[in-house]
Amino acid sequence: MKSDRKYQTLVLVGAGVFLSTMDSSMVNVALPFVMESFGAPLRSIQWVVLIYLLSITVTLLFWGIVADRFGKFGTYLIGILIFLSASVGCAMAPSLTLLIVLRAIEGLGAAMLMAAGPTIIRDVFPNHQLGRGLGLVGIATSAGLMSGPLVGGLLISAFSWRAMFLACIPVGILMIAGGVWVMRNGQRRRVQHPLRSFDWRGAGLWALLIGSLVLYAHFLPLMHTGGWVAGGGGLALLGFLFYLSETKRESNILPLHLFPKNYYHIGLITASLSFAVLFEVLILMPFYLTHIKGLAASLVGTVMMAVPLTLFVVSPTAGMLYDRFGSRYLTTIGLSICTAALLLLSTIDQDTGLALIFVSLALLGMGQSMFLAPNTASLLSRIPEVDAGITSGLLATSRNLGMLAGAAFGSMIFAAWFGYFSAGEELSSFRPALSDPFISSLRWTMLCTAALSAINVLISWQRRD
User: Fold this and answer.
1) Among the four 35, 171, 334, 457, which has the fewest Cβ within 10 Å?
2) Cα dist. 132→127, 169, 375 in Å?
3) Per residue in 326-350, pLDDT tens?
4) What is the pTM of this model?
């Protein structure tokens, strides 16, 4: 493939990744203003974010299969159209209920972009350059995460929260025009394999299982022991029914023939655990910076920028190193750096300087970026084309589930330690007298997270290039 076509396609996919990540990070900034606009309680407003994540996570695998069977570029362009249409609707939504419904539709479009995008990169980059291509896409991911809060804040200050959704339209229109042009100039690929019968029962059970898992993880910190047990039992039953459904059919929604392969199951497991570790830190550190260090919101955002900023810088290099050295050493070194960063964070107290905190977070971002592109490339470079879309969907699902698990269990572990050290106090009633219990709780939570990261290092070392 000609180099200019290859990089034109890369720009198109990168723009989609940028759009979806910027949108998700912008909306978090807007929640207080949406609450004020509709006069709704927090328990209702949180669904503006939750339904988007739920819609993406539940449908990623389905869109991966659609991309495999009916074409990756077509799936990608339809995803852009759905995303843009829903964004316009969100900007004009007259009620919170309609806004939540449109956010669910917007999530469907974002899921199509996430499922089809990496497989398009796989198609246009040869295996010896795949790491480089995925590393460059990592720049778009980081840019979206970094610019979202800034762009969202500026638009809300200048106009209103509704303007935030309209900001996606110019980029989206350019993406559609660029996508049509690329398809007309030879990037369109016909599906070369026969159309298999679709496993609707398996798809339904999978959607129910993943949707229930997302909701369980989200509400887990609010549950009592009975809720944990009942919810966990229900999930186990759904998982067992899904297993029976998949093992008794010839045509499955999951690529069961790939799971026994070392690189495949290790790639999925380590992706999920790495994002669980990352999100435990991203959830808890802003509380430390606000409650203990007394930083203003703008400065908190600046310090937390260390993670996406390092991803932005290191991702392309990590991708190129994968092309030369393979995945085993890079992913293991990356996860080891994450573990070291967590051990550093487990030493912080009231007097820790912002420079050390920034360096620790930057190390976490560096380790994550050294892991991500090589891990993704190690899966996508070895599988047959027929399974590329579903593998991309599974990887994205693993990452999303890791985020949810990290947010849920990180909050639970911290709350348990805080209750222990503060003799039953709640974080919502924080006051300066509770600074010491807070620090002790954060340290132990970071040590627990470092232990999980160390386990992930050992798992990653078992992979074979």
Assistant:
1) 171
2) 10, 29, 12
3) 788 999 999 999 999 999 999 998 8
4) 0.79
